[in-house]
Amino acid sequence: MNRNNFINYLQQEYICDVDYPWEKYPDYVVIRRRDNQKWFAGIFAIKGYQLGQDTNEPMDVVNLKCEPDLIPNLIRESGIYPAYHMNKQHWISMDIERYEDIEKLKMLVDMSYRLVGKK
Fold first, then answer.
1. Which residue among 26, 46, 62, 65 is least crowded, i.e. fewest CB within 10 A of its CB?
2. Counting Cβ atoms within 10 Å, is residue 53 exposed (0-12), middle (13-18) or buried (19+)?
3. Cα distance between the two ends of the chain
């Protein structure tokens, strides 16, 4: 799935707003729940080394909030990493284009949406 398809999916499936909050980083996108304006997905254009990879290749990642107990096992999977620029105990980063299990990606988006909802 590419970045634009992913953003379109989020807009179709969730009651959300798409925000580009950083003028300095026009490729950084935040997807917010409409009811509380908390973001459940952040999409960033970064280099592989920023996630501890041995590459300078550009990649689009999405940061998703996650149940802390699941993170140690998830980050063992190819395409899932400790969160870029977020609390690594509560967030993960996923390579949007290279992660192959689309159903799992959707399930993790659902979890993120639920976790940032009203308590």
1. 26
2. middle
3. 31
